[in-house]
Amino acid sequence: MSARVITITSGKGGVGKTTVTANLGVALAMRGQRVVTIDADIGLRNLDVMLGLENRIVYDLVDVVEGRCRLRQALVRDKRLQELYLLPAAQTRDKSALRAEDMVRVCNELRESFDFLLIDSPAGIEQGFRNAVAPADEVLIVTNPEVAAVRDADRVIGLIEAEGKGPARLIINRLKPELVRRGDMLDTSAVLELLAIDLIGIIPEDETVIVAANTGRPVAFTDNSLAGRAFHNIARRLMGEEVPFAPIKEPGFLGRIFRWMRSEGEEQR
Q1: CA angle 67, 165, 44 (to 5 degrees)
Q2: From CA 81, how far away is CA 221, in angstroms rounded?
Q3: Reduced to 3 states, what is the DSSP secondary structure of residue 3?
Q4: Fewer CB atoms inside 10 Å of the end CB: C or N, the chain?
């Protein structure tokens, strides 16, 4: 057994990377996969809260790297799912406490005991992003169907390809069909045309996600919600299943405008 290391990243903050990491971890573990979710956002950890494990942390990733504990001591096991673990980030340090080679070493040590390592990357394109991407076998990019988020995602795709970690795959999060129908939100086909990477999941806007985040019980624990089913579908695709997508519409008005803006910028360069 050798784990697949998957980094979940984006360009823009607030698009839902941590929510995606937590829910994919749950969905994969519910399918019998041994999973470690790794919080690489040093100083601003939130993955523990999403998973409801914040009160059980003793050691963290930086403690492991700096030799204050063994790796196994820092892993927090989810009591609800015996196959799911968390490796938390340090809350009182900054990103300089970790190097890319540290992340590679930690992930290599975990590979032989697990099926999936899911790394929750910090936002932006600085050192924290490079740390999170360094050990990755695969990269999932999370974006909202909004102009600013998609533009930032496009930038990150280029960086990932430059690091030799591509091609990335795309998760579109918080899609609101009613806004798409009105032309006030980018639709799926417009986002795919702009980013030109393969789609692995579409997560609709769902108020149960907010409730789940506040209670530490990710929606993927059940598939009774739209978002919960979407996370399980992504997990199934990661495991190699053929899961169809809903039909993709032609670009709406906002998509056409953004596509025109992008082509204008390319012509000017």
Answers
A1: 45
A2: 9
A3: coil
A4: C
